[in-house]
Amino acid sequence: MDAKIYLFVDSTQFKGIKLLVLYNSMTGAVEPFEALENREVKMFTCGPSIYQRPHIGNYRTFVFEDILQRYLEYLGYRVIRALNFTDIEDKSIEEAQKRNMDVLELTQQYADIFYEDIKLLKIEPPTCNPRSSTSVDRAVLLIQELLKKGHAYWYKGNVYFDPLTFEGFGKLAHLDMSRWPRVKRRFHRDTYPGDRWNRGDFIIWRGYKEGAIIYWDTAIGRGAPAWNIQDAAMLLQTLGLSIDILAGGEDNLVRHHDYIIATTEPVSGRQLARYWLHCAHLLVNGKKMSKSRGNIIYIDDLQRAGYTGEEIRFFLVYGHYKKKLDFSHDRIKKTSLKLKQAYGMINTIRNLGTGMHKTDNAVNELIMRLKRDFEKNMDNDLNVKPAFDSMLNTLSGLTELAEKSRVTPGDAERITAVLKSIDRVLQVFGQSLI
Predict the structure, then answer these.
(1) What is the pLDDT of residues 13-30, one digit of tens each?
(2) Which whole-number Å values give the CA distances from 224 to 140, 228, 230, 325, 415, in the listed order?
(3) Rounded CA gap, 325 and 318, in Å?
(4) Domains located in the chain, CATH noted
(5) Are the beta carbons of 73 and 36 closer than 8 angstroms?
(6) pTM score of the predicted model
(7) Pairing of β 29-32 and β 186-187
């Protein structure tokens, strides 16, 4: 995968008009956003693999995707979002066997935890929440078409996809396919650790073998869809095979998202997604989270440390999604203090909004600046940090004027209304605006 330099771009550079621009991983460029169908946006976001509990690194991606959805809605789009649950992959089956549990019972347990966590973090529930286990029929349909078109083949009871049959393979990760080996190799597992590419054919259907604990009787025989076809099946079940946005974590750029493209575009004959967005990893004190390091942090760990859902959400979004975020207790403490500073200013403005009966020109300008600066920064590829910082700076100016009795009750109501509209996106002000 070629290294790319990420640059922030002023959205007004595009024909001098105000619009939202997003970094598209497919093209490696910041591009103006245009929906395929007028004011409706179809968005597929990769959900958790629910064989274990999601950690705060997972939630950084989910909160970023929520900000994206909410800002599109702020701009007047109707967003139809599918968030999938991967519940029958190798890892979930192995974990269930280890615990002597039913696979779907195990994954339901973590699905319930996920929904508790997103409620705390004020992540909007998805329009559709498909699961691998409930889209098997769609997986079979896709496999039948891939077999018919010569992209997939049977081998020892399983079905594999041959990337060399699909001309566009690797286009998202910008792979040099001239390096792809012509010697036939097959990769049997759903996923492999690390960031290396499996240069060979990948499994999409696992035929039944004695002792398998989960399988279906289908038109192509008894078995189960492999992970590499499951997202494609869930797309077909919910949004269809031509959508506006597909988003996930940056780790999806290795194998996973190119596999989704390969298993859908040959069937539909259309581009799967117009925009591909990927959120950078969250580190802990400069290191990747892992069980071996013992540095995995969950949402309830931060709750026990005294942080609210709004403070956790704010920490996860206060930055730019394309840049790695490094967690430390000192950093979350600092972002929490910044959020509380905003609460204090809002409280002061609302309580001191008395005295004058005519709007001060300086107050009027600052109120207009609140909305203008927020939109300018958010239009620039969802740049939350300067959007919030500019808002905090403007609130500071309004607080000073309120303390000098230059803010009227009407002004305070207008300020509150603007902040409420902004918080439809950020979801961090909570009780301070009630």
Answers:
(1) 544 456 999 999 999 999
(2) 9, 12, 10, 37, 55
(3) 9
(4) 22-279 (3.40.50.620), 329-427 (1.20.120)
(5) no
(6) 0.94
(7) unpaired
Residues 6+ apart with CB under 8 A from 346: 395, 416, 419, 429, 432, 433
Instruction: Give whole-number Cα distances, 202 to 159, 317, 331, in Å.
Output: 9, 35, 41
For 361-382, write each residue's pLDDT tens digit: 999 999 999 999 999 999 999 9
Q: Strands (DSSP E) along 93-200, which ranges? A: 152-155, 158-161, 186-187
Give Dmax (Cα) for the chain. Answer: 83
53 C-beta neighbours (distance < 10 Å), count? 16
- Compute the distance between CA of residue 61 and CA of residue 317 in angstroms, rounded to an integer: 9
| Packing angle, helices 329-351 and 309-317, rounded to 10 | 110
Strand ranges in 235-381 using DSSP code E only, listed in sequence order: 243-249, 273-279, 282-284, 287-288, 325-327
Quote the CA–CA distance of 90 and 98 in Å, as a whole number: 12
First to last CA, the chain: 48
- Among candidates 214, 231, 269, which has minimal Cα distance to 92? 214
- Residue ranges with strand state E in 156-242: 158-161, 186-187, 201-207, 216-218, 221-225
* Phi, psi angle pair for 20, to nearest 5°: -80, 130
